[in-house]
Design brief:
Layout lengths: L3 H11 L4 E3 L6 E5 L3 H11 L8 E3 L6 H4 E3 L2 H10 L4 E7 L5 H4 L4 E5 L4 H10 L3 E2 L14 H8 L5 E2 L12 E4 L6 E4 L5 H8 L4 E2 L3 H4 L14 E5 L4 H7 L4 E5 L11 E5 L4 H16 L5 E5 L8 H11 L4
Parallel strand pairs: 1-8, 3-6, 5-9, 10-11, 12-15, 13-14, 13-15
Antiparallel strand pairs: 1-2, 2-7, 3-7, 4-5, 5-6, 9-10
Helix pairs in contact: 1-6
Bound molecules: threonylcarbamoyladenylate and magnesium ion.
Length: 319
C-alpha cells in the first residue's frame, strides 16, 4: 500500500520537482534521474558544480541493467551481499544516461538504499532517483529531516521524515569497471569486508584530502566553525594556552577538566556508533558560538577509514 505522503512525493518527482528523503547513510536530495530539468534543479539547490556526478538510487538488482550497460560478476556479488545497504557501485553507463548524472564520464554510480521510506518511494516511483546528499555544497551531510530543512529549506518541494540515519556517513563507493575493484570513497562497508567477499585484495584510492598539497585544502563535509584535528597527547598543552571558546570532540578515555571556555563532547570508541553520531554532533556544535572545534584524531586502523577520511575533509587536515 502506498501512503498519501509517498503518493505526493512520487507526483512531485514525476513533475520534475525535488524530494529530500531519508536513507540509512544520510538524507538524499532526490530528482527523477531521467529528467534533465529536474537534475538541473539539484545542482541549483545545492549550489553544486557540474563536475560532481550524482548517484542513482534504484529499488531492485534487476534494474541495474536499465542504467549500466555492463554488469560484471564482482558487481553482482557485491549487490547480492550488501544491497539494500551503504554501498555504491560504479559501472559503465547506458547510452541514455544524462551527462548531468555522470559529469560527462562513461560511468554511473548506483545503489539500493536500506531505509523503508526510501524503498517505498523508489517502488512507488518505479524509476531511478538521482540523489546527492541533501546539503549545500561542501557542508556536512544531513542525518535528520531537520538538518535538511536547515540546509535546503525553501529550495525543495518536500522533505520526507525518516528519523535519524542509522549509519550516519555516506556510502562506500567502489569502482567495479576495472579488473581489480578500487574503493573511491571509504564507508562503513570496509575494504576488508569487500576483499573477504570477493576473495581478492581491494585497495582504497588515496584520499584527495591526503594527497592534496598543504595549503591547497578544499573543505568538504565541513562545519561552518573552523575545525581542526588534535592528537590525544596534544590536548593538555593546548588547554594551557587556549583562551577561546572551543569544543573538543574526543573518543578515547582522557581527563576532561571543567575549564571555562572548553566544552567537551565524548563520542563512542566504537566506529559504528561514532559514525552514527559525528555529523549530528558537529552540526549541533556549529549552532553554538565556538571559535574552533577540535577533533581528536581517530585510530589508523581500517575500521576507522571512512571516519578518518571525513574528518580530514572536514578539517582540511588542519592541526
Ligand atoms: O550515502 C550516499 O552515497 C548518499 C545517499 C543520499 O545515497 N549520497 C551521496 O551523494 O553521498 P553525494 O552526491 O553527496 O556523493 C556522491 C559521490 C560524489 O563524490 C561523486 O563524485 C561520486 O559519488 N560519484 C558519483 N558518480 C560517480 C561516477 N560515475 N564516478 C566516480 N564517482 C562518482
Ligand atoms: Mg555529498
Amino acid at each position: 500500500m502506498t501512503t498519501p505522503i509517498i503518493t505526493k512525493a512520487t507526483n512531485i518527482l514525476r513533475e520534475g520537482g525535488l524530494v529530500a528523503f531519508p536513507t540509512e547513510t544520510v538524507y538524499g536530495l532526490g530528482a527523477d534521474a531521467a529528467n534533465p530539468d529536474a537534475l538541473q534543479r539539484i545542482f541549483a539547490a545545492k549550489e553544486r558544480p557540474y563536475n560532481h556526478p550524482l548517484i542513482v538510487h534504484i529499488s531492485a538488482i534487476k534494474n541495474l541493467n536499465d542504467w549500466a550497460r555492463e554488469v560484471p560478476e564482482t558487481a553482482i556479488k557485491l549487490a547480492h551481499a550488501f544491497w539494500p545497504g551503504p554501498l555504491t557501485l560504479i559501472l559503465k553507463k547506458q547510452p541514455h544516461v544524462s551527462d548531468l548524472i555522470t559529469s560527462g564520464q562513461d560511468t554511473i554510480g548506483l545503489r539500493i538504499p536500506k531505509h523503508p521510506v526510501a524503498l517505498q518511494l523508489l517502488q512507488a516511483f518505479a524509476g531511478g532517483i538521482a540523489a546527492p546528499s541533501a546539503n549545500r555544497f561542501t557542508h556536512i551531510s544531513p542525518t535528520t529531516a531537520m538538518a535538511v530543512q536547515e540546509e535546503l529549506g525553501g529550495k525543495i518541494d518536500l522533505i520526507l521524515e525518516g528519523g535519524l540515519c542509522e549509519v550516519g556517513l555516506e556510502s562506500t563507493i567502489i569502482d567495479v569497471t576495472r579488473e581489480t575493484p578500487v574503493i573511491l570513497r571509504p564507508g562503513m562497508i570496509s575494504a576488508q569486508a569487500i576483499s573477504a567477499l570477493l576473495g581478492m585484495q581491494v585497495a582504497l584510492a588515496a584520499s584527495e584530502a591526503e594527497i592534496r598539497a598543504p595549503g591547497m585544502h578544499h573543505l568538504h563535509y565541513a562545519p561552518n566553525t573552523a575545525a581542526a584535528l588534535i592528537a590525544k597527547d596534544e590536548v593538555s598543552s593546548f588547554l594551557q594556552i587556549n583562551k577561546d571558546p572551543v569544543a573538543i570532540v574526543i573518543y578515547s578515555e582522557m581527563n576532561m577538566p571543567e575549564i571555562p571556555n572548553v566544552h567537551w563532547v565524548k563520542l563512542s570508541d566504537k566506529p559504528a556508533q561514532y559514525a552514527h553520531d559525528i555529523y549530528q554532533s558537529l552540526r549541533s556544535l556549529d549552532h553554538q558560538q565556538f571559535k574552533r572545534i577540535l577533533i581528536e584524531r581517530v585510530p589508523d586502523t581500517t575500521e576507522w577509514d571512512a571516519i578518518r577520511d571525513r574528518l580530514l575533509k572536514a578539517t582540511g587536515g588542519r592541526k
